[in-house]
Amino acid sequence: MTAQNLRKFVEFTSMSAAHLFADYCQTQGLTVQVQPQGHTTSLLAPAEQLEHIEPLLAEFLREPTHPRYQAAAWQQSHSVALPTGSRRFSLSALWQTPLTAALLLLTLAVYLWQQIDFNGANAALQLHQPAQVWRWITPILLHFSLTHLVFNLCWWVLLGQKIEQYSSSVNLLQLAVSSAVISNGLELALNGPNFGGLSGVVYALFGYCWLQDKLNNTEQYPVTNGLAAFMVLWLALGFMDVLWINMANWAHLGGLLCGLGWAWLSRRTRTNL
């Protein structure tokens, strides 16, 4: 059957999920072809079979981790791992996500620089001179304690790696740069230039991952409702000034709103019947 006889009926951001559903359809006697398209994967089928495929797709989107789909993959003589938020961090996978790895290494290098010349590093990277364009981004590389550094980098690696895997490096880059500029600019305007840290970007990743899963009815990212509620509570406590640490609260808020905004703008229609 040629591609001219087939119609695209769904587009996935995950190739493994597309293969999983295609295999299941094959075991039901339906003709479904997988067609990679850049950072997405389309599924195609004969027009006359779409009325049979549509209810199966609705079931798959509601419960993609059901054993029936993995069983179908085995029946087609291969196993497909469906991406979920429970996938563990993999160091080898980190090197397959170059932007995540690059910012990790750059932040560690800047922290080492701070240990050698704290004042010099801060003077070079803080947003003291807004006319120097790079300073709207470089404060995210500064961290003022080991705890601050480790907390931010752990979340950057976990969430950044997922976004880069399931979407693209370009998507992660635009999310990181825009949230850095917005969070740093908001903090500068309301609190002055003496701040630093990756937290604004981390909050952007949290917001993006949580809302992406909600809008697309998926569980790709490890941001549960409970974790999202905790992050919002932490943000609120920072504004209430009841915590034992000083936080760039406006940067956190700016990053969160930026991440939610990108998730809303990049939402996609799952089906196109």
From TrEMBL:
Keyword Transcription regulation: no
Its membrane topology: Multi-pass membrane protein
Domain Peptidase S54 GlpG peptidase N-terminal: 11-78
Pfam families given in the database record: Rhomboid, Rhomboid_N
Gene Ontology MF terms in the entry: peptidase activity
Alphabetized UniProt keyword annotations: Cell inner membrane, Cell membrane, Hydrolase, Membrane, Protease, Transmembrane, Transmembrane helix
GO annotation, biological process: proteolysis
InterPro entries (UniProt xref): GlpG_N_sf, Peptidase_S54_GlpG_N, Peptidase_S54_rhomboid_dom, Rhomboid-like_sf, Rhomboid_protease_GlpG, Rhomboid_protease_S54
Major location category of this protein: membrane
Domain Peptidase S54 rhomboid stretches: 131-267
Descriptive protein name: Rhomboid protease GlpG
Lineage: Bacteria, Pseudomonadati, Pseudomonadota, Gammaproteobacteria, Alteromonadales
